[in-house]
Amino acid sequence: MYILGSFYLNFHRSVILLFVGLMTIFNSAMAQSDLSTSVGTEQNKWYDRINLRGYAQLRYNRLLETNPLLKNEQGDKSWGDGGGLFIRRVRLVFSGQISERVFFYIQPDFASSISTDNLHFGQIRDAYFDLGLDDDNEFRFRIGQSKIPFGFENMQSSSNRLPLDRADGTNSSFVNERDLGVFFYWAPKRIRERFSLLVNEGLKGSGDFGVFGLGFFNGQGANKPELNKNKHIVTRISYPLAVGNQFIEPGIQAYTGRYQLFDAQLSEGVKTASDKTYIDERIAASVVLYPKPFGIQAEYNVGRGPAFDKETDSIRSEKLQGGYVTFSYRKLINDQTFIPFARLHYYDGGKKHELDARKYEVKELEIGVEWQPVKQFELVCQYTLSSRRFEDFKLQDNLQRGNLLRIQAQINF
Q1: Which pLDDT score is estimated for 112?
Q2: Distance from C-alpha of 124 to C-alpha of 110, rounded to nearest angstrom
Q3: Within 13 A of 300's CA, how many CA atoms are on the CB side?
Q4: Is there a contact between 226 and 220 (Cβ–Cβ < 8 Å)?
Q5: CA-to-CA distance for 264 and 268, rounded, in angstroms?
Q6: From its phi and psi, is residue 352 left (phi > 0), alpha (psi between -120 and 50) or beta?
Q7: Which domains does the chain have, with CATH numbers?
Q8: Residue 40: how many CA atoms within 13 Å on its side-chain side?
Q9: Distance CA 143, CA 145 (A)
């Protein structure tokens, strides 16, 4: 992990120079481009290119529940005591290629939950625009709040993912998977088309985050203020290979930076570093065999980050590790899609964005099936067998085990 720290110290200036150079190329290309599309006929008006789509999810998690004290704060706040029918997401996506080189994407969520008793707030999830540097937009900048290019499942839309929540091992890296930043992406045109196909054909793709990505971002999390001058740096390489009738996508990614704890997430009496700032870095490997019809999706990451230590009642920089493997089978029956799946996942480490950077040890098995009778509707039934140790300054020696049946109905529009 010290390699990642050295990477940040030695190359953050080079990253900035790279962005400056690419922006110079972009400005030169734009000066030579044909501007007729912006002043053309009525059908070329920019507002004719805006698209609207979205989805909504309704859940119930308490069937066959064996332990109401079993919780999953980051995943779904309706687990356990106090839970009932729960609107997990209500998303609207406004997007459009408003010129040959400019694409925008805005996604609010109208079911954000800031606590267990304050639900259904509107909040921005994504708000960014892409600036293409060439005619095919193979080279582009993404500027604004967007997903951090780290991990396949993190970037996979919740409307596409099979298990109802992301695995703790990789999802613990970023709350809501997003932050404010500037990212450079590159992918050949034919590979960009392949990324789109893997989503549009119902193969559970992650979307187009380039073959190569490099960027910097605040590091404090989506919709959170920056607390220090430090910027996180992330890089990723991922390539979907066509092998006969199948697609295989290996990938590797890493990020590094320094995270500062918010005062509101600290219990009175817990000990912290003097500046409440900790190293925050990870490296992860991913591999995906898309379900045609059998599918395997696996990821594992290691790193360092803040975590609560009950032996010293303090938050320390500690090692972390975790990942998952998901098996699936996609079957079409009379124009209806059935995808049975199973996922094993594990995590040992802190969650920097939770109270006192809670220390976790998670072992879970999830078995379920997704049914799509029509494109606009999906129903998922998932049985979860869970063992979760989650400890902070106030809640120590807290190991909860239990099982529950979870059901989600999703509307796509």
Answers
A1: 86
A2: 9
A3: 4
A4: yes
A5: 10
A6: alpha
A7: 2-34+44-412 (2.40.160.10)
A8: 14
A9: 7
Q: Angle 386-405-413 (CA atoms, 0-180°, nearest 5)?
A: 115
Distance CA 67, CA 74 (A): 18
101: helix, strand or coil: coil
In whole angstroms, what is the distance from residue 264 CA to residue 125 CA?
22
| Look-up of token digits 């605040």 | 218
- Tokens 């909040």 correspond to what residue? 123
Tell me the longest C-alpha to C-alpha distance in the chain: 70
Tracing tokens 């490296």 back to the chain, one arrives at 283
* Cβ pair 145, 174 in contact under 8 A: no
Provide the H-helix boundaries in 280-396: none
Alpha-carbon torsion angle 80, 82, 83, 87, nearest 10: -140
What are the distances in angstroms from CA 412 to CA 17, 90, 339, 408? 42, 10, 17, 13
Residues constituting the chain: 413
What's the alpha-carbon Rg for the chain, to the nearest Å? 22
Token digits of residue 136:
């095919």
Cβ contact 145:167 at 8 Å = no
Do the beta carbons of residue 352 and residue 219 sit within 8 Å? no
For 28-60, the DSSP string reads: HHHHHS-GGGGSS-GGG-GGGGEEEEEEEEEEE
How far, in Å, CA of 267 to CA of 313, rounded? 10
Using the structure block, give the residue that is written with the tokens 């067998």: 385
16 CA to centre of own chain: 25
Q: Quote the CA–CA distance of 107 and 89 in Å, as a whole number.
A: 12
Q: Which two tokens stand for residue 366?
A: 């999830």
E strand map for 64-162: 86-97, 102-112, 121-132, 139-147
Integer Cα distance of 148 and 182 in angstroms: 10
- Asked if 342 and 326 touch (Cβ cutoff 8 Å), the reply is yes
This prediction's pTM: 0.88
Backbone φ and ψ for 386, nearest 5 degrees, come out as -130, 140
Question: Which DSSP category does 129 fall into?
Answer: E
* Mean pLDDT split into 10-residue runs, the chain, 413 residues: 47 48 49 43 70 97 96 89 92 95 97 76 96 97 98 96 97 95 98 96 96 98 93 98 95 98 95 97 98 97 98 97 98 96 98 97 98 97 98 95 98 96
Q: CA 173 to CA 168: how far, in whole Å?
A: 9
Count of beta carbons in the 10 Å neighbourhood of residue 115: 8
